Structure formats: structure tokens, C-alpha cells
Amino acid sequence: MERRMSIPHSEFRIPHWGGVVQLGEFRSLVARLQREIPAEFTGGVVAVDVSPKALPDPVHGDVYTLGECVPLEWSGSGADLHSRIIFYYGSFACLARLGDFAWREEAWETLTHELRHHLEWRAHLDRLEAYDWAAGENFKRHEGQPFDPVFYRSGEELAPGIYKVDDDVFMERTTWSVQRGGEEVEAAWHGRRYRVSVPHAGPGPLFLTLAGLVDPPPGDAILVMRPAPRLLDLFRRRPAPVQEVVEVTLPDG
User: Fold this and answer.
1) Long-range contacts of 98-101 (CB under 8 A, 24+ apart)
2) pLDDT digits (tens, 9 = 90+) for 154-181
């Protein structure tokens, strides 16, 4: 669903207009590229939008998501799926500042990459159903309603144990000992390590929304702390997850 990219390689060329492209220029570039795509490949794509935001990779400090395809609605047949393609201008600009960067070539590659994802969504209805369910559970989470504590695993897996649903990123950690309130754990985000103070202990999973990240995602960055599974869990009612917002700190202060 996404196209990610790291520091540009030497074969990339600086765009002919030079320097960092402004947001308005980039929107015009994307619109021109969109008109070059044959209509038979864009059926069901309701919008190709440019967001000013940057979307940093949750693991690597020199990797950014350039664009993504977001499924919007469908009625059960993949052929009628509607999708939205999003370009993250901020990600393009961050990479351009790191070295030579071919804006047009990368924008074209991102557009065609996300169009392929749109076609794949249409062909794989099981994946679409799972993602649609995960998005619904994530909406419940935002609204403070009861939600399935492992719904995020039906989203897009960005890396082992890291998942994305809508704009939110979930980083899963299994704990083998009970965490007491006030204890600190480490969490990694976009190439940096942070300290996180666990607010309290409990029998169920903790969904800790991390505040204070240097390069946050457009949505929430959530550390999911799950107790290690035990045999007795098969015979007990699953505890409800608890959500908290926690302020992170860098190890050096």
C-alpha cells in the first residue's frame, strides 16, 4: 500500500528547475503525471491528492513513505472498489535535502506503484475485507469504544511487529513480566530510541500513544504492550485494552 524510499543514490538527478520543489509546483507536477496514465488503469481512483506532511519510516531514520493507496469503499465486488492515492510532499522534500533527487522520476514511480496497489486491492478481496475490518476497529479505538485488541495485525505490516492502519502506526511488544507503574521501557521510532514511562500495570494490553517524537507520523504512534500468552488465558475472559497518552524522552534528555 505504500512506497518507501531512503537516501537517494548517485544516479538520481537534480530536477531541471533545481533545489527543493515548492508545494504548489509539486501539485502541478503530480497533476501532469496523472494525465499521462491511460484511463483504463485509473478506474475507481476517486482522487490523487498531495499532502504537505512527511511520513517517516517507523524503523529507519533515512527512510520516508512517498505515497500510499487508501481503499475507501466497496460493495463486495473488487471491481467497484474506490481508492484514494496520497503523495506525501513532506517526504519528498526531506529526501531532496539529503542529496541529489529526481523529483519527476520519483513522483512517476510513486504514482504507478500506488496504481498497482489499487489494482491489487481489486484482485484480493480477502486482504481488503481484513483491512476494512481493521479500519473499523481503529475508528472504535479513536471514539473510546470497545475494540478488538489485535485488530492492527490486519493492517499493513511495515516491519516485523509494526503495523499501519489508516494514519496510525502500531508497534507491538510482548512483555514477559508485569510492568509496574512508573517503570521505563525503551521504544524506537525513525532511527531514534526513546524512554517511555509505563503509567500503570494491568492484566490486559496497553495502547500507549507516544507524544513528543521528533518526527511523528501523521496519525498516532502507538506502543502496544501485550502480556505474554499463558495457558490459563484459554479459560479466562480476555481483559479489555487500556489506552494512555505518554510523553517520551530521549536517552540523553
Assistant:
1) 98/7, 98/8, 98/62, 99/7, 99/8, 99/12, 100/8, 100/10, 100/12, 100/13, 100/14, 101/8, 101/12, 101/14, 101/15
2) 998 899 999 999 899 999 988 755 455 5
Question: In the beta sheet, which residues pair with residue 225?
Answer: 173, 206
pLDDT, one tens digit per residue, over 71-123 is: 776 655 556 778 899 999 999 999 888 878 889 999 999 999 888 888 777 77
Q: Which residues pair with 37 in a beta bridge?
A: none
Copy the grid coordinates of residue 194.
526513546
CA 247 to centroid of chain Cα atoms: 20
- Cβ-based burial of 110 (10 A; exposed 0-12, middle 13-18, buried ≥19): buried
What are the cell numbers at 100? Answer: 541529489
* Cα–Cα distance measured from residue 158 to residue 145, given in angstroms and rounded to the nearest whole number: 26
> pLDDT of 191-246, one tens digit each?
999 999 888 766 678 999 999 999 999 999 999 998 766 555 545 566 788 899 99
> Structural domains in the chain?
2-123 (3.30.2010.20), 148-247 (2.60.260)
Sole residue written with cell 506503484: 113
**Cross-strand partners of 186:** 195
Dmax over CA atoms of the chain, in Å, equals 66
Element (H, E) at 186: strand 184-189
